[in-house]
Design brief:
This protein is of the alpha/beta class. The protein has 12 helices and 11 strands.
Length: 336
Protein backbone atom coordinates (compact mmCIF):
# COMPACT_ATOMS: atom_id res chain seq x y z
CA UNK A 1 0.00 0.00 0.00
CA UNK A 2 1.49 3.32 -1.10
CA UNK A 3 0.19 5.64 1.59
CA UNK A 4 -1.33 5.35 5.04
CA UNK A 5 -4.84 5.46 6.53
CA UNK A 6 -6.04 8.14 8.93
CA UNK A 7 -9.06 8.97 11.06
CA UNK A 8 -10.18 11.88 8.87
CA UNK A 9 -10.81 12.35 5.15
CA UNK A 10 -12.66 10.25 2.61
CA UNK A 11 -9.80 8.40 0.90
CA UNK A 12 -7.82 7.82 4.10
CA UNK A 13 -10.80 6.48 6.05
CA UNK A 14 -11.79 4.34 3.07
CA UNK A 15 -8.33 2.79 3.18
CA UNK A 16 -8.66 2.25 6.93
CA UNK A 17 -11.79 0.14 6.47
CA UNK A 18 -10.34 -1.51 3.38
CA UNK A 19 -7.54 -2.86 5.57
CA UNK A 20 -10.21 -4.55 7.71
CA UNK A 21 -11.58 -6.20 4.58
CA UNK A 22 -8.18 -7.44 3.41
CA UNK A 23 -7.23 -8.75 6.84
CA UNK A 24 -10.59 -10.56 7.12
CA UNK A 25 -9.41 -12.66 4.17
CA UNK A 26 -5.84 -12.96 5.48
CA UNK A 27 -4.27 -10.71 2.87
CA UNK A 28 -0.74 -9.75 3.88
CA UNK A 29 -0.83 -5.93 4.03
CA UNK A 30 2.36 -3.85 3.85
CA UNK A 31 1.98 -0.09 4.31
CA UNK A 32 4.47 2.48 3.03
CA UNK A 33 3.70 5.98 4.40
CA UNK A 34 4.62 8.70 1.92
CA UNK A 35 3.64 11.86 3.82
CA UNK A 36 3.56 10.94 7.51
CA UNK A 37 1.47 8.70 9.75
CA UNK A 38 -0.58 9.27 12.89
CA UNK A 39 0.80 7.44 15.93
CA UNK A 40 -2.58 6.08 16.95
CA UNK A 41 -3.16 4.76 13.45
CA UNK A 42 0.28 3.16 13.45
CA UNK A 43 -0.72 1.25 16.59
CA UNK A 44 -4.07 0.33 15.01
CA UNK A 45 -2.67 -1.18 11.81
CA UNK A 46 0.01 -3.10 13.71
CA UNK A 47 -2.70 -4.56 15.96
CA UNK A 48 -4.47 -5.72 12.81
CA UNK A 49 -1.38 -7.57 11.63
CA UNK A 50 -0.11 -5.09 9.04
CA UNK A 51 3.55 -4.29 8.34
CA UNK A 52 5.00 -0.78 7.97
CA UNK A 53 8.02 0.09 5.83
CA UNK A 54 9.96 3.23 5.05
CA UNK A 55 9.66 4.45 1.49
CA UNK A 56 12.40 3.54 -0.98
CA UNK A 57 12.14 3.88 -4.75
CA UNK A 58 12.55 0.14 -5.26
CA UNK A 59 10.27 -1.05 -2.44
CA UNK A 60 7.32 -1.82 -4.73
CA UNK A 61 9.26 -3.92 -7.25
CA UNK A 62 7.28 -7.03 -8.30
CA UNK A 63 4.53 -6.23 -5.77
CA UNK A 64 0.82 -5.55 -6.10
CA UNK A 65 0.63 -1.88 -5.17
CA UNK A 66 -2.54 0.05 -4.26
CA UNK A 67 -2.81 3.79 -3.75
CA UNK A 68 -5.88 5.72 -2.61
CA UNK A 69 -5.65 9.24 -4.03
CA UNK A 70 -2.04 9.66 -2.85
CA UNK A 71 -0.54 12.58 -4.75
CA UNK A 72 3.09 11.92 -3.74
CA UNK A 73 2.77 8.38 -5.10
CA UNK A 74 1.78 9.69 -8.52
CA UNK A 75 4.69 12.12 -8.48
CA UNK A 76 7.15 9.35 -7.53
CA UNK A 77 5.71 6.70 -9.84
CA UNK A 78 8.08 7.29 -12.80
CA UNK A 79 11.02 6.93 -10.41
CA UNK A 80 9.44 3.88 -8.80
CA UNK A 81 8.99 2.18 -12.18
CA UNK A 82 12.58 3.00 -13.14
CA UNK A 83 13.85 1.43 -9.91
CA UNK A 84 11.78 -1.74 -10.33
CA UNK A 85 8.31 -1.91 -11.82
CA UNK A 86 5.50 -3.17 -9.55
CA UNK A 87 3.72 -6.36 -10.57
CA UNK A 88 0.45 -4.42 -10.70
CA UNK A 89 -0.30 -0.80 -9.83
CA UNK A 90 -3.88 0.02 -8.80
CA UNK A 91 -4.89 3.66 -8.50
CA UNK A 92 -7.96 5.19 -6.87
CA UNK A 93 -8.80 8.81 -7.60
CA UNK A 94 -11.23 10.09 -4.97
CA UNK A 95 -12.35 13.08 -7.09
CA UNK A 96 -14.42 13.45 -10.26
CA UNK A 97 -11.63 15.03 -12.31
CA UNK A 98 -8.13 13.87 -13.25
CA UNK A 99 -4.91 15.12 -11.70
CA UNK A 100 -2.17 16.30 -14.07
CA UNK A 101 0.24 13.73 -12.63
CA UNK A 102 -2.41 11.04 -13.11
CA UNK A 103 -2.73 11.92 -16.78
CA UNK A 104 1.04 11.78 -17.20
CA UNK A 105 1.61 8.37 -15.62
CA UNK A 106 -1.42 6.91 -17.39
CA UNK A 107 -0.07 8.11 -20.72
CA UNK A 108 3.17 6.31 -19.93
CA UNK A 109 1.34 3.09 -19.05
CA UNK A 110 2.34 3.02 -15.39
CA UNK A 111 -1.16 2.36 -13.95
CA UNK A 112 -2.44 -1.17 -14.53
CA UNK A 113 -5.90 -0.90 -12.96
CA UNK A 114 -8.16 1.99 -12.03
CA UNK A 115 -10.63 1.65 -9.16
CA UNK A 116 -13.78 3.75 -8.86
CA UNK A 117 -15.91 4.29 -5.77
CA UNK A 118 -19.18 4.68 -7.68
CA UNK A 119 -20.83 4.30 -11.06
CA UNK A 120 -21.05 8.08 -11.23
CA UNK A 121 -17.33 8.56 -10.66
CA UNK A 122 -16.53 5.92 -13.26
CA UNK A 123 -18.80 7.65 -15.79
CA UNK A 124 -16.95 10.92 -15.23
CA UNK A 125 -13.37 9.65 -15.32
CA UNK A 126 -13.21 6.71 -17.72
CA UNK A 127 -13.99 8.78 -20.84
CA UNK A 128 -11.26 11.25 -19.87
CA UNK A 129 -8.78 8.44 -19.24
CA UNK A 130 -9.66 6.69 -22.50
CA UNK A 131 -8.80 9.84 -24.42
CA UNK A 132 -5.26 9.36 -23.12
CA UNK A 133 -4.77 5.57 -23.25
CA UNK A 134 -6.75 2.30 -22.83
CA UNK A 135 -8.15 1.71 -19.35
CA UNK A 136 -8.45 -1.45 -17.27
CA UNK A 137 -11.00 -1.18 -14.46
CA UNK A 138 -10.88 -3.03 -11.15
CA UNK A 139 -14.22 -4.47 -10.05
CA UNK A 140 -14.63 -2.60 -6.79
CA UNK A 141 -17.13 -1.71 -4.09
CA UNK A 142 -16.03 0.43 -1.13
CA UNK A 143 -16.14 -1.32 2.23
CA UNK A 144 -17.28 0.02 5.59
CA UNK A 145 -16.82 -2.17 8.66
CA UNK A 146 -20.21 -1.63 10.31
CA UNK A 147 -19.16 -3.69 13.33
CA UNK A 148 -16.86 -0.86 14.38
CA UNK A 149 -19.82 1.39 15.19
CA UNK A 150 -22.20 0.39 17.97
CA UNK A 151 -25.85 1.08 17.18
CA UNK A 152 -26.78 3.93 19.49
CA UNK A 153 -29.71 6.09 18.39
CA UNK A 154 -29.43 9.49 20.06
CA UNK A 155 -32.36 10.35 22.38
CA UNK A 156 -33.51 13.86 21.48
CA UNK A 157 -34.11 15.00 25.08
CA UNK A 158 -35.49 18.41 24.19
CA UNK A 159 -33.22 19.21 21.24
CA UNK A 160 -33.15 18.36 17.56
CA UNK A 161 -29.62 18.57 16.24
CA UNK A 162 -28.68 18.98 12.59
CA UNK A 163 -25.30 19.39 11.00
CA UNK A 164 -22.75 18.55 8.34
CA UNK A 165 -19.16 17.31 8.11
CA UNK A 166 -16.51 17.69 5.42
CA UNK A 167 -13.03 19.03 4.88
CA UNK A 168 -12.53 22.80 4.85
CA UNK A 169 -12.93 23.20 1.10
CA UNK A 170 -15.07 25.82 -0.63
CA UNK A 171 -16.26 23.20 -3.11
CA UNK A 172 -17.77 21.18 -0.26
CA UNK A 173 -20.07 23.98 0.94
CA UNK A 174 -23.13 25.43 -0.77
CA UNK A 175 -23.19 29.23 -0.46
CA UNK A 176 -26.58 29.11 1.28
CA UNK A 177 -25.56 26.53 3.90
CA UNK A 178 -26.48 28.72 6.87
CA UNK A 179 -29.83 29.62 5.28
CA UNK A 180 -30.68 25.92 4.86
CA UNK A 181 -30.05 25.29 8.54
CA UNK A 182 -31.80 28.50 9.61
CA UNK A 183 -35.01 27.51 7.78
CA UNK A 184 -35.30 24.13 9.53
CA UNK A 185 -38.36 24.26 11.80
CA UNK A 186 -38.92 22.26 14.98
CA UNK A 187 -41.93 21.75 17.26
CA UNK A 188 -42.12 23.96 20.34
CA UNK A 189 -40.72 21.31 22.69
CA UNK A 190 -37.54 20.79 20.63
CA UNK A 191 -34.73 23.32 20.49
CA UNK A 192 -32.81 23.32 17.21
CA UNK A 193 -29.00 23.13 17.31
CA UNK A 194 -26.63 23.26 14.35
CA UNK A 195 -23.18 21.65 14.29
CA UNK A 196 -20.51 21.80 11.55
CA UNK A 197 -17.29 19.81 11.61
CA UNK A 198 -14.65 20.90 9.10
CA UNK A 199 -15.37 24.64 9.28
CA UNK A 200 -12.34 26.82 8.60
CA UNK A 201 -11.29 29.87 6.61
CA UNK A 202 -12.20 28.33 3.24
CA UNK A 203 -15.71 27.42 4.37
CA UNK A 204 -16.15 30.80 6.01
CA UNK A 205 -15.24 32.55 2.77
CA UNK A 206 -17.89 30.52 1.00
CA UNK A 207 -20.81 30.63 3.43
CA UNK A 208 -20.08 33.60 5.69
CA UNK A 209 -21.23 33.86 9.29
CA UNK A 210 -24.20 32.24 10.98
CA UNK A 211 -27.39 34.34 11.06
CA UNK A 212 -28.38 35.98 14.36
CA UNK A 213 -30.43 33.81 16.69
CA UNK A 214 -29.19 30.46 15.37
CA UNK A 215 -27.83 28.12 18.06
CA UNK A 216 -24.67 26.76 16.40
CA UNK A 217 -21.19 25.42 16.97
CA UNK A 218 -18.35 24.66 14.56
CA UNK A 219 -15.10 22.71 14.75
CA UNK A 220 -12.11 22.72 12.44
CA UNK A 221 -11.26 19.48 10.64
CA UNK A 222 -10.23 16.68 12.99
CA UNK A 223 -10.76 18.87 16.07
CA UNK A 224 -13.14 16.16 17.24
CA UNK A 225 -13.56 12.66 15.82
CA UNK A 226 -16.18 11.87 13.22
CA UNK A 227 -17.83 9.49 15.68
CA UNK A 228 -18.08 12.19 18.35
CA UNK A 229 -19.65 14.49 15.78
CA UNK A 230 -22.19 11.95 14.55
CA UNK A 231 -23.14 11.03 18.12
CA UNK A 232 -24.27 14.64 18.53
CA UNK A 233 -26.50 15.12 15.50
CA UNK A 234 -29.77 13.56 14.38
CA UNK A 235 -29.95 14.69 10.76
CA UNK A 236 -27.14 15.48 8.32
CA UNK A 237 -27.86 18.08 5.62
CA UNK A 238 -25.12 17.79 3.02
CA UNK A 239 -25.29 20.21 0.11
CA UNK A 240 -22.08 20.84 -1.79
CA UNK A 241 -20.72 23.77 -3.76
CA UNK A 242 -19.22 22.14 -6.83
CA UNK A 243 -17.27 19.17 -5.48
CA UNK A 244 -19.47 16.67 -7.40
CA UNK A 245 -19.34 13.89 -4.82
CA UNK A 246 -17.72 10.73 -6.16
CA UNK A 247 -19.04 8.66 -3.25
CA UNK A 248 -19.40 10.75 -0.06
CA UNK A 249 -17.93 8.75 2.78
CA UNK A 250 -19.73 10.89 5.37
CA UNK A 251 -23.06 9.63 4.03
CA UNK A 252 -21.94 6.08 4.81
CA UNK A 253 -20.79 7.15 8.26
CA UNK A 254 -24.15 8.82 8.91
CA UNK A 255 -25.92 5.52 8.18
CA UNK A 256 -23.64 3.70 10.60
CA UNK A 257 -24.33 6.17 13.41
CA UNK A 258 -28.12 6.34 13.09
CA UNK A 259 -28.11 9.80 11.50
CA UNK A 260 -30.60 10.48 8.69
CA UNK A 261 -28.93 12.04 5.62
CA UNK A 262 -30.43 14.70 3.37
CA UNK A 263 -28.31 15.03 0.23
CA UNK A 264 -28.44 16.30 -3.35
CA UNK A 265 -30.33 14.30 -5.96
CA UNK A 266 -27.23 14.09 -8.12
CA UNK A 267 -23.71 12.71 -8.41
CA UNK A 268 -23.14 9.38 -6.61
CA UNK A 269 -26.07 9.81 -4.21
CA UNK A 270 -28.82 8.00 -6.19
CA UNK A 271 -26.80 4.77 -5.91
CA UNK A 272 -26.49 5.17 -2.14
CA UNK A 273 -29.81 6.57 -0.90
CA UNK A 274 -33.30 5.08 -1.11
CA UNK A 275 -35.40 8.23 -1.02
CA UNK A 276 -37.79 8.26 1.90
CA UNK A 277 -36.47 4.96 3.22
CA UNK A 278 -32.80 5.51 4.11
CA UNK A 279 -32.67 9.30 3.72
CA UNK A 280 -33.82 12.05 1.39
CA UNK A 281 -32.52 13.44 -1.90
CA UNK A 282 -33.22 16.85 -3.35
CA UNK A 283 -31.08 19.50 -4.97
CA UNK A 284 -33.42 22.28 -3.81
CA UNK A 285 -32.23 24.06 -0.66
CA UNK A 286 -35.74 24.84 0.60
CA UNK A 287 -36.73 21.20 0.21
CA UNK A 288 -33.70 20.18 2.25
CA UNK A 289 -34.90 22.46 5.04
CA UNK A 290 -38.42 21.03 4.64
CA UNK A 291 -37.30 17.40 4.90
CA UNK A 292 -35.24 18.17 8.00
CA UNK A 293 -38.25 19.96 9.49
CA UNK A 294 -40.58 17.08 8.62
CA UNK A 295 -38.25 14.66 10.40
CA UNK A 296 -38.28 16.89 13.49
CA UNK A 297 -42.09 16.80 13.46
CA UNK A 298 -42.20 13.03 12.94
CA UNK A 299 -39.75 11.41 15.36
CA UNK A 300 -41.05 7.89 14.78
CA UNK A 301 -40.36 8.27 11.06
CA UNK A 302 -36.93 9.68 11.82
CA UNK A 303 -36.07 6.60 13.83
CA UNK A 304 -37.52 4.25 11.21
CA UNK A 305 -35.43 5.82 8.46
CA UNK A 306 -32.32 5.82 10.64
CA UNK A 307 -32.75 2.09 11.31
CA UNK A 308 -33.34 1.40 7.62
CA UNK A 309 -30.18 3.32 6.76
CA UNK A 310 -28.10 1.21 9.10
CA UNK A 311 -29.52 -2.01 7.62
CA UNK A 312 -29.04 -0.72 4.07
CA UNK A 313 -25.38 -0.02 4.82
CA UNK A 314 -24.71 -3.52 6.14
CA UNK A 315 -26.76 -5.47 3.61
CA UNK A 316 -26.55 -3.53 0.35
CA UNK A 317 -23.54 -1.22 0.48
CA UNK A 318 -20.92 -3.00 2.59
CA UNK A 319 -21.58 -6.71 2.32
CA UNK A 320 -18.26 -8.39 3.14
CA UNK A 321 -18.28 -11.00 0.37
CA UNK A 322 -19.47 -8.57 -2.29
CA UNK A 323 -16.76 -6.05 -1.41
CA UNK A 324 -14.13 -8.81 -1.41
CA UNK A 325 -15.08 -10.41 -4.75
CA UNK A 326 -13.22 -7.95 -7.00
CA UNK A 327 -10.05 -8.19 -4.93
CA UNK A 328 -10.30 -11.97 -4.84
CA UNK A 329 -10.54 -12.12 -8.63
CA UNK A 330 -7.55 -9.81 -9.03
CA UNK A 331 -5.28 -11.56 -6.55
CA UNK A 332 -6.12 -15.02 -7.88
CA UNK A 333 -5.09 -13.86 -11.36
CA UNK A 334 -1.51 -13.66 -10.08
CA UNK A 335 -1.52 -17.25 -8.85
CA UNK A 336 -0.97 -18.62 -5.33
Amino acid sequence: MAGFPSFYGGADTELDHQIDLWRSFEVDVHLVPMFGADERMIESVIERGCHIHEYRDEIFKDRVVVSYCNGPFLEHLPTIVAAGRPLCTIWFNCMTWLFDAEKEVHARGFIDRFGFASTYQKSQLVPELERIAPVQVLSYRPYFNVARVDWRYRPWNGSYQVGRISRDDEGKFAPDTWRIFDRVLTPAHLKKKVYILGFGPNAERRIGSAPPGLDWRTWTGNEISATEFFRNIDTMIHKTGGSRESYCRVLIESYAHGVVPIVEHDFAFPDLVVHGETGFMTSDSDEMSYFASWLAMNPAEHRRIAEHGRRHLGRALSDLQTCWSGWEELLRSFGP
